[in-house]
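Q: My labmate handed me this sequence with no annotations at all. I'd like to see what the chain might look like in three dimensions before we decide whether it's worth expressing. Could you predict it?
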Amino acid sequence: MTTEAAPRVEIVLPPLHKSQLVIAKDPHRFKVVACGRKWGKSLLDATVLTKYAPEDPGLYMHIAPVYRQTQEAWEYIEKIVGQWPRSVVRQVIHSAGSEQVFFTTGGVIEMRTGDLPANLRGPKLKGAVMDEAAFQKRETWETVVRPALAVDQGWALFSSTPNHFNWFYDLFELGQEP
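A: Here is what I predict for the chain of 178 residues:
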């Protein structure tokens, strides 16, 4: 009796430009990316989330200031996840105000908004992307997301266009120190 191995599925990630690749491959726990409009933040965010969630059980969140801003990254995630067989992706839920991908490995990607930080409280996080972080409240990071990441030493990616000298600027400056 011969047993054939299941065919290996090649997942084609969207091509990243040189700067995005450097960030995606960077091993640091916290990454702060300040860049202009149409640089490709949503593509980078989606690629990073879909890199970790299928392989490592736990909750991964994409957090944007408002719901509409989650949609571009969600469209990339749907395209990437659509390549996996149903045996890998357990469920994709898309409804008004809530998008989630559940992997059979136990990884979950959830799209959320940071407009009401208290609504993010509760679960521990393996990873978080704070999209347009400069336009979110400092409280969202300091009192909700950071503590949720601390439990499992999770990672965070902050991608944003600058917005004056606020907490995102302070984070960016911290990363410039040797």
